[in-house]
């Protein structure tokens, strides 16, 4: 909504051929109406991915990895859609996905003045936040009163400005098609975050609405949603230097962090998180290599663990390469000099130093409690969840609902669970926890494992004595949801371990850590206000916060190191060069080999080759997965799915020379749908410019 004020002239100079109103308009259809946020019931505004409409009948595309959980949930040994792909031949075959939401933005509004004007000077941080939440709630209700719309107000510029987004939230979202994982996830964790890339990371969904084209829960009577706008698809190709624009819902960036935060991230937080996830992945990968069934169960889990694991490594490397800490220290020295005598800003750099010094031991302990503890072995998380649910059931006397809920919980959990794999993970988590923290930061039950000096045996004994290890024992021991079941659960050794970690986190770590975080949040607001006041001519961009944003740049290769130069695109030939039937991540479907052997490429080539992926220097982050990549005419040329590893520090420091977003070329998407999947009927819905 601010393009006209800040960016449109620069965009047009760089080649954009549309207007700001073509991008965002509340009075007529515009490009924004074709972009959606993918969320989950209960938190529809926390978009985990972006998608885009490509037909007048509610068809949308996003990434394969965005739909991975949906594809997995419909998969079994008999119908292995992860391995074989899925394509609905008619709409009645499209698969419903309960709990998935699609948000379509109706409008945005600057509500800064309405909020700030009601905040008196001298409010404590807690009172200020409570007041903002209260005022925001009133404004959100007022904006949607008498409608089926939902509104959400988010802070921008570290809480110095506020904008409201108003949405239609659709809840009938169906899977229409997805390629085999050997295409959609080609290269797997090995190629994740890397360039050159050959991943066909796309899937096809369809949004349904009621007879009035309004949001509705799943019903066989629903009809395909008719969006106000959808993207035309350009199959005309791209070249070096072409203008590109990305629309989407980026999750979180932290461009304005102080040097102390970057140092703690690169020297404390990330290294320990990397070590924990490395151990977990080693166990998972070994188990998946031994068994195809285990691979089905753990494919999505391993992908989830590996995604951030690889990113954290790239962040450290990129931040060091661009001397981010040193650059921020120089900025802070300049700021301190400018702020001398200014009551509001003086002393903030010293306060930052002291706060992060207090934070270091706490954040290290928090990393282990969360990553190695409650999110380490799955059985620990299950025990904690069951204990909480049964406890509430006993307190509120809701046994019937609890029993049904737990029955479903057991079925869902053990469907994708391997006890031996989880036992080995628990042993590794206990070993790392005890090896990397002093005794004062280790919960009592975790510390007991150190005394045995054999973590594998300790974990095995824990599983042997626990009722959480098999679905039969689980149903028998705590399925009744009564006081007797609760006593059994609380005595269970896995529950005692989980409770020990939880209690340590709640009472020893979080109170002080959260107080520090609140103080840092307040300092961040003052710090950014000061920077903007110190440099009034500079245009500052608000950090990402899962609201709709535009980023623009150009198609182009890059040079990540001396003597290394990457071109801007990859081709199907590169896939064939990587094809290795004996390696899971590189074993492409036979159908793709057959098409390649016949050279049956159709109209999807450039210089005789089928293009697969390309890179550009648009600034993206998590949540931009699935975002449309548009050309100068606003036509869809690709689907964003990743960043190049050398530039993943862009969440904190973006550099257009090295930072690259990676997109699957829309021509490869069309090629796979048409020539590999044989689902050409979907192309008939699209408006393709050739």
Description:
With 690 residues, the chain is α+β, with helices and mostly antiparallel strands. It contains 24 helices and 22 strands. The strands form four sheets. Strands 1, 2, 3, 4, 5, 6, 7, 8, 9, 10 and 11 form an eleven-stranded antiparallel β-sheet that branches. Helix 10 packs antiparallel against helix 12 and helix 16 packs across helix 17 (444-452). The chain is globular, with a radius of gyration of 26 Å.
Q: Which of globular, elongated, flat, extended, rod-shaped describes the shape?
A: globular
pLDDT under 50 segments (min length 5)? none
Q: How big is the Rg?
A: 26 Å
Biggest sheet features: 11 strands, antiparallel
Please report the number of helical segments: 24
Span between N and C termini? 31 Å
**Number of DSSP strands?**
22
Please estimate the helix content: 40-55%
What is the structure about, briefly put?
This protein has 24 helices and 22 strands. With 690 residues, it is of the alpha+beta class.
Helix-strand layout with pairing:
Layout: H1 3-6, H2 8-13, H3 20-23, E1 35-40, E2 49-53, E3 59-62, H4 68-73, H5 81-84, E4 86-87, E5 95-96, E6 100-110, H6 112-116, H7 125-144, E7 150-156, E8 161-170, E9 172-178, H8 181-184, H9 188-191, E10 203-209, E11 223-224, E12 233-234, E13 243-248, H10 259-290, H11 292-321, H12 324-338, H13 348-374, H14 378-396, H15 399-415, H16 419-436, H17 444-452, H18 455-465, H19 471-478, H20 483-491, H21 493-534, E14 549-554, E15 558-561, E16 564-566, E17 569-571, H22 572-578, H23 590-598, E18 611-616, E19 628-630, E20 636-643, E21 661-665, H24 666-676, E22 688-689
Parallel strand pairs: 12-22
Antiparallel strand pairs: 1-2, 1-6, 2-3, 3-10, 4-9, 5-9, 6-8, 7-8, 9-10, 10-11, 13-14, 13-19, 15-16, 17-18, 18-21, 19-20, 20-21
Helix pairs in contact: 10-11, 10-12, 10-13, 10-16, 13-16, 13-21, 14-15, 14-20, 14-21, 16-17, 16-18
């Amino acid at each position: 909504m601010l393009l006209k004020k800040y960016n449109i002239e620069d965009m047009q100079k760089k080649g954009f051929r549309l207007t700001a109103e073509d991008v965002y308009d509340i009075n007529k259809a515009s490009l924004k109406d074709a972009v959606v946020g993918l969320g989950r019931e209960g938190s529809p505004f926390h978009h985990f991915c972006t998608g885009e409409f490509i037909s007048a009948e509610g068809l949308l595309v996003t990434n394969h990895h965005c739909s991975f959980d949906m594809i997995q949930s419909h998969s079994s040994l008999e119908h292995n859609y992860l391995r074989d792909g899925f394509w609905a031949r008619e709409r009645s075959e499209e698969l419903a996905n309960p709990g998935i939401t699609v948000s379509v933005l109706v409008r945005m509004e600057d509500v800064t003045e309405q909020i700030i004007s009601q905040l008196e000077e001298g409010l404590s941080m807690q009172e200020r936040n409570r007041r903002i939440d209260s005022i925001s709630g009133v404004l959100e209700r007022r904006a949607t009163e008498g409608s089926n719309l939902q509104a959400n107000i988010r802070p921008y510029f570290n809480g110095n400005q506020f904008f409201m987004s108003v949405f239609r939230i659709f809840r009938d979202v169906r899977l229409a098609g997805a390629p085999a994982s050997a295409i959609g996830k080609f290269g797997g964790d090995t190629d994740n975050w890397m360039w050159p890339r050959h991943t066909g990371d796309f899937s096809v969904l369809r949004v349904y609405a009621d007879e009035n084209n309004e949001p509705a829960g799943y019903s066989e009577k629903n009809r395909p949603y008719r969006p106000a706008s959808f993207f035309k698809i350009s199959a005309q190709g791209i070249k070096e230097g072409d203008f590109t624009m990305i629309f989407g819902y980026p999750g979180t960036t932290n461009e304005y962090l102080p040097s102390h935060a970057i140092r703690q991230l690169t020297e404390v937080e990330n290294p320990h998180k990397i070590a924990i996830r490395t151990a977990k992945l080693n166990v998972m990968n070994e188990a998946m290599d031994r068994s195809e069934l285990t691979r089905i169960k753990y494919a999505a889990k391993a992908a989830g663990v590996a995604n951030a694991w690889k990113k954290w490594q790239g962040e450290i490397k990129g931040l060091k390469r661009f001397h981010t800490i040193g650059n921020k220290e120089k900025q802070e020295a300049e700021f301190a000099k400018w702020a001398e005598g200014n009551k509001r800003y003086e002393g903030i750099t010293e306060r930052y130093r002291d706060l992060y010094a207090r934070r270091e031991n706490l954040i290290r302990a928090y990393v282990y409690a969360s990553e190695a503890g409650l999110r380490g072995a799955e059985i620990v998380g299950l025990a904690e969840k069951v204990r909480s649910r049964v406890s509430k059931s006993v307190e509120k006397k809701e046994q019937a609902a609890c029993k049904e809920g737990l029955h479903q919980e057991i079925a869902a959990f053990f469907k994708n669970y391997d006890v031996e794999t989880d036992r080995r993970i628990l042993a590794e988590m206990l070993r790392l926890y005890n090896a990397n923290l002093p005794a004062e930061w280790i919960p009592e039950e975790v510390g007991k494992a150190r005394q045995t000096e054999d973590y594998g045996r300790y974990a095995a004994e824990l599983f042997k004595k626990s009722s959480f290890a098999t679905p039969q024992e689980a149903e028998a021991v705590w399925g009744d949801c009564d006081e007797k079941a609760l006593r059994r659960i609380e005595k269970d050794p896995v529950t005692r371990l989980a409770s020990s970690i939880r209690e340590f986190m709640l009472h020893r770590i979080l109170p002080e850590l959260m107080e520090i975080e609140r103080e840092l949040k307040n300092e961040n607001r003052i710090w950014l206000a000061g920077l903007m006041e110190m440099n009034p001519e500079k245009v500052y961009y608000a950090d990402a916060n899962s609201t709709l944003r535009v980023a623009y740049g150009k198609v182009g290769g890059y040079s990540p190191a001396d003597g290394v130069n990457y071109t801007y695109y990859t081709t199907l030939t590169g896939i064939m060069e990587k094809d290795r039937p004996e390696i899971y991540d590189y074993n492409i479907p036979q159908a793709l080999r057959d098409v390649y052997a016949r050279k049956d490429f159709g109209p999807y080539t450039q210089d005789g080759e089928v293009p697969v992926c390309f890179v550009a220097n648009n600034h993206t982050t998590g949540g931009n997965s699935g975002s449309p990549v548009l050309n100068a005419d606003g036509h869809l040329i690709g689907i964003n799915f990743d960043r190049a590893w050398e530039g993943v520090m862009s969440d904190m420091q973006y550099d257009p020379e090295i930072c690259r977003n990676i997109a699957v070329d829309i021509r490869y998407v069309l090629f796979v749908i048409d020539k590999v999947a044989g689902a050409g009927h979907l192309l008939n819905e699209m408006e393709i410019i050739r």
